[in-house]
Amino acid sequence: MFFQGEFSMADAATGAPQIQGTLPLYKKPEPLNAQLHKGKGLKYGDRPFDFLNETHFVPVTVGEFASAGGDYPIIFLGESKISVAVMGLQAGENLFVDSKTSEYAPFHYVPAFVRRYPFVGAVHTEEKDRFTVCVDTQSHLFSDKPDFEFFDADGKPTEFTQRAIEFVRRYESDVAVTQLFVDRMKELDMFEEQTTRFQPRDQAGNPVGEPQVVATYWGLSLKKLSELPSKTLEELRDNSYLGAIYAHVLSQARWEQIMARAAFRAGEVTSSSMSRPTMAPPPPEA
């Protein structure tokens, strides 16, 4: 999934492009082709986020940590330590997409991985620095009667497609930068296994039973960060890694909101009880 370089449309002169890694959301990515996809394009309709409503996490790049971390817990998964934004507590449920209307929760950051869909880049088998732009032809957005066509009458990419190509190029560049960040964190042994737990409470707010494990994942350790030599800390500061580390750590506070959303969807709490009480303003001076 991590690659960067020159992008192109489908080209028979080079090795067949390959999608690398596992791609959530995508069902059947195919290289964009002026002959095969003439007259086709995307139609967003009134349910543009249907593709996302069963996905409970999506990858995020290191440059998104500050923005995404304000709305979602950012964690790292698997041996590769892929950074993802958590959008639900169980597979098949996204707490930020309304299952009835397909509307995305307003005023929340939409990760670039989501905004890129249904486009994606694929590396060529013979030329590793060349990439072909693909589109998920089984996406509900893919249409024979599109609002935005892929190609014009001359078979050239439309302005819409050109913007999509540029977005994919920049995204894959950001993914490569993220991989460098993860590699450096591995070198510094910054990762540790972390667990998020939920304490059930009664209506009076008293604990009921034992805390329940919500999720186990990889996170970055503040303790290990504090033990790094000054020279290494300066390096992390100068290459902006330090800010990304703190953004990840601070994002763990979003677990509370995720659990509140899950409880609200399950009908266990009301919308009013999800809001934190605010401090009353001071009385006017006499």
How would you portray this structure in words?
- By secondary structure, this protein is α+β, with helices and mostly antiparallel strands.
- It has one domain.
- The chain is built from seven helices and 13 strands.
- Strands 1, 2, 3, 8 and 9 form a five-stranded mixed sheet that branches. It has a three-stranded antiparallel sheet with strand order 10-4-11, with no helix packed on it.
- The protein is flat.
- The termini are far apart.
Features:
286 residues; alpha+beta; 5-stranded mixed sheet; 3-stranded antiparallel sheet; 20% strand; flat; disordered N terminus; disordered C terminus; SapC; SapC family protein
